Amino acid sequence: MDKRTLLYDPSKVRVLVVDDEPSIVKFLEFGLRREGYLVQTARDGVEAVAKARESMPHVCILDIMMPGPDGFEVCKMLKAMGNVAVILLTARDAVDDRVRGLVGGADDYVVKPFSFEELLARIQARVRTQFPQVLMQQAFGPFVVDDARKEIRYRGESLKLSSTEYELLRYLLQNHGLVLSKAQILDHVWGYDFNGQDNIVEVYISALREKLGDRDRTLIRTLRGQGYRVDLP
Asked: What's the predicted TM-score (pTM) here?
């Protein structure tokens, strides 16, 4: 499993469910609301486009076979409006249909009958990929970076960090496993126009190690002549 897990608040994600089968609409509406999502529903393409214009959804679960404009046409209209993740939901599983949907702009394709858990995972994946602005936290092994609170927790405990220490540790964690040179760190954390001494990186790394109890330097490693690398336990 990837040590990096992205988390977000579902109550900030708008989902539009479009299907002419009342049982499927009711099932998805109930399940998604239970998960915390903001859900709207539509029974045909015309209603779907109208509701999308009123409150642009982040994700649209879209049936293909509907009265009026079908899912392929609705998908094109939604994509023309802006950034919306379209997941086609249909009983048609022919390869040609899948290709037509994806070429027409759909972001994913789920065939009926389907698992709600799988559909939920696909929704989560699309939100993480297309709407990073709703991400609240990023987990890296024992660390949790909370951008909303400007806080980093280590093994459940909040670290007392200055704003610069926060940005430095956040940058190191987001690039865990990679060697970051002092120049890269200076550019990202202090800015391209920083005119101070590059030993400021060493000073801040030392401060982070102290706060993390990383006295043996196994968490934030120094690679002589190359830079620093975070190794997650």
From this structure: 0.60
